[in-house]
Design a protein that fits this description.
The protein has 360 residues and is an alpha/beta fold. Helices cover 42% and strands 16% of the residues.
Length: 360
């Protein structure tokens, strides 16, 4: 038996990154006699306000409670074989706990990250946290880890600068969970779907003028699945408030999935999970070019756009060509099964854990 302590940032089943990077593997790990103890830094009450404006007292009090929990948990580390860290053990401050885990308690750390989180970026609603995020700490956490898991090649290349025991596991989706939605009834009108958090709405805003050009030639419904209402005008827009119960059904009822990105270094760290979700639900995709997106979508399974102006012709073609959409859907679903399924990538994670367990 292997016992792993997971000092997560958020409560279980709240953060998409945390859910799809680790939590969904837990059943497979249990089958492999690997048992997880999850302890969130941010509790549920604090999570409810952490990304909203104001509520400063609740946020500060929630963070203080998080540090207290982390400190108390140090006295339980003797029960565990290793520690799994996803992004960071505390969302602000220097890597104190990571240093203690590795250098004082001599625990093997598996470190997982799926964004270019060494590059400074914070929410507009939490600008005050920018100065205490300590983005520089990521390279040290990587150095102190026994194994590092990156979500794409760009992240793995960065990790290799500081650690040679680096593995790539793409963000994955469970085929067993998405298959029941493959025959989901479609919206009556051709529907273009975008899903994401409020922090990534900026990418959709940048694409909005080009979506309007497409709409003027070929009307369509734009469905936005998000935890915040989009602040731009569109002739036919359907907003769906995101939750774990509707994310698959609302995507699957659309006809086309889109993933716009800004041309920033930060964007290269994104793991393209929107595309993987779309493909697993039988939705053809179109996305801005990034290294990760190009790896996810080959020519048979989706469309990569290199310049914003290309969105107009490519999206118009997808809207007007049901046969092309069908072909991309079939090929995309098969590609997810081969490369991006939870069922497949759980084996890779189990091998990493068991190899660390055997090493002295």
């Amino acid at each position: 038996m292997v016992k792993i302590f997971f000092p997560s940032q958020f409560p279980e089943n709240c953060s998409p990154s945390q859910r799809f990077r680790f939590e969904q593997f837990e059943a497979f790990l249990n089958d492999g006699d690997i048992h997880i103890t999850l302890e969130p830094f941010i509790d549920e009450n604090t999570y409810a306000v952490i990304y909203k404006k104001g509520n400063y007292f609740k946020k500060v009090f929630g963070v203080i409670k998080g540090f207290v929990r982390r400190f108390i948990s140090l006295f339980t580390l003797h029960r565990f074989d290793m520690i799994y860290i996803q992004r960071e053990a505390s969302p602000i401050g220097p890597p104190v706990f990571e240093w203690l885990y590795a250098k004082v308690f001599r625990k093997k750390i598996i470190y997982d990250f799926d964004d270019a989180i060494w590059i400074p970026a914070t929410s507009k609603n939490n600008r005050i946290s920018h100065g205490v995020k300590c983005f520089w700490k990521i390279k040290y956490i990587i150095k102190w880890s026994a194994a590092v898991i990156g979500g794409n090649d760009y992240l793995c290349r960065y990790a290799l600068l500081y650690n040679k025991n680096v593995f790539k596991i793409p963000t994955s989706v469970s085929i067993k969970k998405t298959e029941p939605f493959l025959n989901q009834p479609k919206e009556p009108m051709v529907t273009v779907v975008w899903t994401g958090s409020f922090t990534t709405l900026v990418h959709l805003y940048e694409l909005a003028p080009y979506l309007l050009k497409v709409y003027e030639a070929t009307p369509f419904l734009l469905k936005v699945i998000c935890n915040a209402f989009p602040k731009f005008d569109f002739p036919q827009l359907k907003y769906i408030e995101w939750n774990t119960n509707n994310e698959f059904s609302e995507i699957a009822s659309g006809h086309i999935g889109i993933m716009p990105s800004e041309k920033l270094v930060w964007s290269e760290g994104k793991c393209g999970f929107k595309l993987i979700q779309y493909m697993s639900l039988g939705i053809p995709c179109i996305a801005d070019h990034t290294e990760a997106n190009k790896h996810i979508l080959d020519n048979a399974s989706g469309i990569i756009v290199y310049e914003k102006e290309e969105w107009v012709s490519n999206l118009t073609q997808l809207i007007n060509d049901p046969e092309l959409r069908k072909n991309l859907s079939v090929n995309g679903l098969q590609r997810v099964k081969e490369l991006f399924s939870t069922e497949k990538n759980a084996d890779a994670l189990i091998r990493i854990i068991m190899n660390l367990k055997e090493k002295k």
